[in-house]
Design a protein that fits this description.
By secondary structure, this protein is α/β, with parallel strands linked by helices. It is built from 9 helices and 7 strands.
């Protein structure tokens, strides 16, 4: 999806993304793109199979150069996470280890709390084909398991990074659940809705629609339910009242 706005301030920080033995530069590039989508800039590579820097990573990164250029390379996983306070390991396979198993949301909520306390976190992502080895998982304090189709639980690196990055970003996002771009309207209040209902029902009575009388209460409730479910905005209520008024005006001779 397009939508990059170069006038906006860049979001940065967040947990370190540690890719253990990534095999292809293209995969590193797509992971970098996923990172920057959600303001993650600290990429760490443990024994990448191909040489690094790798120009094959740059095009798939789609201008996430700040991530690519800042990526650091380590010989051992333990070295890559040495100064971090908290480490989480992503895996889709059960392990014979007594470690807490967290969803991405729970893990990133914990990472956000750690960040607020001035503590650092990192997330381990494994090899494209085999994931993390037990020795990699052993350095983590918890396992992160993504709830996916158990019959097809395979995620590529970029997908996994994107999921964790999204959950990280969401924990610090204060965007309301419903946002209206224009800023010129607001949800209709009860008084405005009732005014519309009264107006509509008056005209329906005049037109003979709410008939017979014994069915009128049920018909009115059904009509009100239809419009109540929509979540009308104040501007929309005014528009609907205008429509009702126009439809009920006497037509001039010659109008079709």
């Amino acid at each position: 999806m397009a939508g990059t706005d170069q006038t906006k301030d860049a979001v940065s920080g967040g947990p370190a993304i540690v890719l253990v033995e990534p095999q292809m530069g293209e995969n590193i590039g797509t992971a970098a793109r996923a990172m920057l989508n959600f303001g993650l800039t600290d990429m760490r590579l443990v024994r990448p199979r191909d040489a690094w820097p790798n120009e094959k990573a740059r095009a798939p990164a789609s201008h996430a150069d700040v991530v690519i250029d800042g990526a650091r390379v380590y010989r051992q996983t333990a070295d890559a996470v040495a100064e971090l306070n908290h480490v989480y390991a992503t895996t889709a396979r059960p392990r014979d280890m007594l470690k807490p198993v967290l969803t991405p949301r729970a893990a990133m909520e914990a990472a956000r709390r750690h960040a607020a306390a001035g503590e650092t976190s990192g997330i381990l992502f494994g090899r494209e084909k085999s994931g993390l080895h037990n020795d990699d998982v052993a350095v983590s304090e918890a396992v992160v398991a993504v709830p996916v189709n158990p019959a097809f639980a395979s995620l590529n690196i970029a997908q996994a990074v994107l999921l964790l990055g999204y959950e990280w970003f969401l924990t610090g996002d204060d965007t309301p659940g419903h946002e209206f771009a224009s800023g010129t309207t607001r949800p209709a209040n009860h008084e405005e809705l009732m005014g519309f209902f009264d107006h509509l029902e008056q005209e329906l009575d005049a037109g003979g629609f709410l008939y017979p009388p014994e069915k009128r209460p049920t018909m009115v409730r059904n009509i009100r339910n239809i419009f109540s479910r929509i979540g009308l905005m104040e501007q929309e209520v005014r528009t609907l009242r205008g429509i009702v008024s126009t439809l009920t005006k006497p037509r001039k001779r010659g109008d079709s």
